[in-house]
Amino acid sequence: MASLTRNLCTAVLAGLAVCLAACGTLSRPPDGVLRLADVEVVPAADPRIRASDAGRLERLAGELASHLQDGEPAAVLALSGGGANGAWGAGVLSGWSDRGDRPAFAVVTGVSTGALTAPFAFLGPAWDDRLESAYTDGGTQGLVSWRSFAAFFAPSLFSPADLREVVERHVTPELLAAVAAEHARGRRLLVATTDLDAQETVIWDMGVVATQGGPQGLVLFRDILVASASVPGVFPPVLIAGLDEQGRVVQTMHVDGGVNAPFLGVPEGLLDWTPESQVRGTFYVLVNGQLNRTPRVTGGRLRDILERSFDSAGKAMLRAQLLTTAEFAHRTGMPLYVAATPPELETSSLDFDRDSMRALFDAGRRAARDGEVWRRFTPEALTGEEEGEAAPRSGGAHLQPRSVHGGDDDALADGRPDAVDLGGPFGA
Questions:
Q1: Which residues make Cβ contacts (< 8 Å) with residue 328, sequence separation at least 6?
Q2: Cα–Cα distance between 258 and 81 in angstroms, integer?
């Protein structure tokens, strides 16, 4: 996290001075209502699900649970934020494919850089080459460079032009059609943004957007991905139009989904939800970053303090979200496996240099190919006191989870995942 973090902190200070002059802004109506021509608006299916909308979330969860219970044991994948560290996660997915036991995920969720990875993870190994290209072809090189500095005319330090170009180059009509086809089969691709106007997480059902198709669907699909990756202050927010409860066309302001949650595991509206019967599947969380604390003496300069503060806050959010997800997984009967960037790997979420991204991708690919990334989650793993059991190797979508602490042999015999004994507050 060396020079680029220092450069960003320097840019933050410069940006603060610019902000005092109130130079950069986004023009929008005070009430958010767009003044359109007096024509009838034909609403499309609404792909938005608010994290606090318990009713709609429970209906979606019920549909997914029914889908998971009807067939073979399935898998759910949640992809976290982490900026440039997303190259490591992309490498993990490719290495998992090389290993031959990557599941066909029934549900994939993404936040921030995880949102950019999510469509490719959802579509499976056939799209690995395009995922690799998105993170290693050099298109991200100028994301946070001085040539992208934009604070004099935008409400952010950097222009979103390079980010949009990366998304537009890799999110194509072909990709939309493929997502729509998988959505029709009952699989779900979900991406989270943060609605600053409502101060809550919005979950976008990307299969609904893809099914809409056409130029409008393609633009919305891309806008959502850009919004989910738009770190406030670094990139400008994205204004997304939709219908409100009065049928008016309004714009809402969306930024990085990681503002409210580092990954989309359990929306707040489902914290107390329990399925009618246990789910036959496995929950995977791919963390594009490091989890464990790294104690050291913090320098006395402002940039050192900012760096450590952001790093500490991000890790604390990740650990808290993992504990919440573990309790949910325990309640639904799904074993939880977690992969995170190893502490010995020097990383920076802001280092979008092509060579650095390639090195991260290759490291993730090697680790996954060798079966070194996935560990059964335990609260002790967050403190380094205990390392979880490695994920079992099996073929295709039929991963058979094993119990870490023993369990119901009959449950394993008929394919049902054994309940996870996490101890402490999660113990039986």
A1: 265, 266, 270, 271
A2: 6
**309 touches 360 (CB < 8 A):** no
Contacts of 121 (CB under 8 A, 6+ apart): 77, 79, 93, 105, 108, 110, 131
> Alpha-carbon distance 110 to 132, whole Å?
17
- At 42, list the tokens: 């034909």
The DSSP secondary structure of 225-272, one letter per residue, reads HHHHT--BTTB--EEEEEE-TTS-EEEEEEEEGGGT-SS-SS-GGGTT
The DSSP bridge partners found for residue 340 are 287
Residue type, position 198, single letter: A
DSSP secondary structure letter of residue 346: -
State pTM to two decimals.
Answer: 0.80
Judge whether 87 and 361 are in contact, CB under 8 Å. yes
Q: Which residues are paired to 327 by β-bridges? A: none
Q: Are strands 74-79 and 281-287 parallel, antiparallel or unpaired?
A: parallel
* pLDDT tens profile 171-181: 999 999 999 99
Rounded distance between C-alpha atoms, residue 125 and residue 103, angstroms: 10
Write the pLDDT tens digit of every residue in 235-278.
Answer: 889 999 877 777 778 889 999 999 999 999 877 777 767 777 77
Cβ distance 428 to 419 under 8 Å?
A: yes
Q: How far does the chain reach from its first CA to its final CA, in angstroms?
A: 41
| 81 alpha-carbon distance from chain centroid | 5
143's tokens: 């994301």
40-60 pLDDT tens trace: 555 567 899 988 788 888 888
**Dihedral angle sign, alpha carbons of residues 246, 241, 216, 80:** negative
Give the contacts of 257 (CB within 8 A, at least 6 positions apart): 81, 110, 111, 112, 115, 191, 192, 193, 194, 201, 228, 264
Among residues 182, 185, 416, the alpha carbon closest in space to that of 282 is found at 416
Distance CA 115, CA 225 (A): 6
CB 255 within 8 A of CB 194: yes
Phi, psi of 315 (to 5 degrees): -65, -40
Band (143; pLDDT cuts 50, 70, 90): low
- Give the pairing type, strands 375-376 and 336-340: antiparallel
